[in-house]
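EI: anyone free to look at a 238-residue chain?
SC: sure, send it
EI:
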Amino acid sequence: MIPKKSIRRSFTRLYIAWQAIRHGLTTPDTIPASGGHAGNRSLAPYMKYGYVPDEDGPTSNALEYAFDDWMAAQFAKALGKSDDYAYFQKRSENYRNTFDPATKHMRRKHRDGTFVADFDPFYFGCDGGWTGSGYMEGNAWLYTFYVPHEVPALVQRMGQDTFNERLEEGFRLNRVDMGNQAAIHLDKQYHGGKIFEIETLNSGPKNVYIQSATLNGKPLNQPFFEAQRINKRRKVGL
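SC: here you go
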């Protein structure tokens, strides 16, 4: 049995951690006397506009902040803080404010709500350094997929065919840099678009060993199969 004192200490630490997280996600950055920035430098415009305008910083920051908001919402929910949960859950939808239905990309946007002209989804980086407008270590093509907390909603906005075709093309043409944190989730989205079904027959406490296996109704006589064989809907029977 865990001592009550240890439980109280654990909860106290969780609430202290929550207060720090909430402060970081609701307090605009400051410039200390020593220089640099303390906090998220694009947070103030993000909170005001629901996105990061091109005049105030990278569009990619808005997408990262939205994911931060979603994670904060889950923490708040676990702690029973319903008001904080609702607030951050709603803010986690801010990625939608940079989505352009016409091009189906997350685009740079001005303070007045208009998208930046001369759009190139493959234009890489930020103008004038890493704090400038644009996409940090990426481009619009890449950051359009940066909605790891609402993938089904993103697929609905892009359209399933467009979503899948872009991912297929991206991996085929090496547009996905798996060494960059903005892209490391794309392999899961890529495989997540496929349906892989496993069906077991007569399984139970006394039937724990596999007697035979099939792949799409055909005998599978080896304990493995090639990855390319699950590019479409596949069903394994055991």
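EI: The longest helix spans residues 4-26.
SC: 👍
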